[in-house]
């Protein structure tokens, strides 16, 4: 067991970073309260670490008031603690993945050996394996595989023509999505944004309208993450309009439409439009019922299970712990469901329990998430802030040990 005297004094809460940003503006706490719309008592509780500053909508409100990026409050990206060897391995490839993204659209200047070994079936298998790492939240394996894979896909895109070239760009778009998720999970949001742009560019080269719309699902998420709700909403509305105009949509289009309704519900929840968020969740449920099965088109999971998981995420986003806990208890995950998505469900459960005052259950849920996806859970901004708040207000052995692995103590 770890005792309070072992807690590292330099661990910062989101509230401490908020206080530093406020001081940079030479604002008083009262000025921040006025500009953000929160009470002075709430500002003090956040800055003193007595209240968890983990909800994205609140972080975005402060980021907009202080004209900063949300990560300046959340502290991302995070460096894994030295004892976390898998975490260290996961971040080791960030620079190499970034370099591969930067080379998109540039002449590849392949060697003779590279030009002679372009093999579409092999590239297909390697992309499938990268997506398996993505769904398993195996960040170290993703980082190790992506730089060479992206390079080989870029070479193939330059050297092929016609339908083969379009198929290669479909694989390249999928590879960029894997890079985007890898970087996003590790808190490298600017690099993840770069990857999202590459997804869009590669998708356009496929000539597949649905593939392009699927890329815009991620594009909307970029604007959502920085609080540009109107821009995110415009992208979503345009996609839903295009999908709605299809006379006889197949299952891929129905799945994509449902996914956009889920994205709309999240965007509106963070924009604090609860009624509209619930309405779009209902539309997503209708699409899921129409499909009657879980699909994974373009590695974008949608169906009854994912809609049920989002029904938990939404009240968590709005801070409605009791509702989220009640919904989580009804979720039945099928055998073999994505470790990445299952771990995120446990994170949502943990946050719901925390909001509902059930701290022991919150810790247990976070530990469930960590067992499934260690690096993704330890780098998750809301987990780090929530666990840090629990430690500051009530130190317990298992909780503190989790905090040490997260690097928040």
Description:
There is one protein chain. By secondary structure, the chain is mainly alpha-helical. It has three domains: 1-75, Orthogonal Bundle (434 Repressor (Amino-terminal Domain)); 77-207, no CATH class; 210-318, no CATH class. It has 23 helices and two strands. A two-stranded antiparallel ribbon has the order 1-2. Strand 1 and strand 2 (300-302) form a beta hairpin. Helix 6 (85-91) packs parallel to helix 10 (139-159) and helix 12 (189-204) packs antiparallel against helix 13. It is globular and about 65 Å long. Mean pLDDT is 94; it is low at 1-10.
What's the gist of this structure?
The protein is mostly helical and 409 residues long.
Shape estimate: globular
Q: Which strand order do you get reading across the main beta sheet?
A: 1-2
Low-confidence stretches: 1-10
Number of helices: 23
Work out the helicity level. Answer: over 70%
Mean pLDDT: 94
Biggest β-sheet strands, sense, barrel: 2 strands, antiparallel
SSE class: mainly alpha
Question: How many DSSP-defined strands?
Answer: 2
How many domain regions?
3
CA distance, first residue to last residue: 14 Å
Question: How much strand?
Answer: under 5%
Gyration radius (Cα, Å) is 22 Å
N-to-C order of helices and strands: HHHHHHHHHHHHHHHHEEHHHHHHH
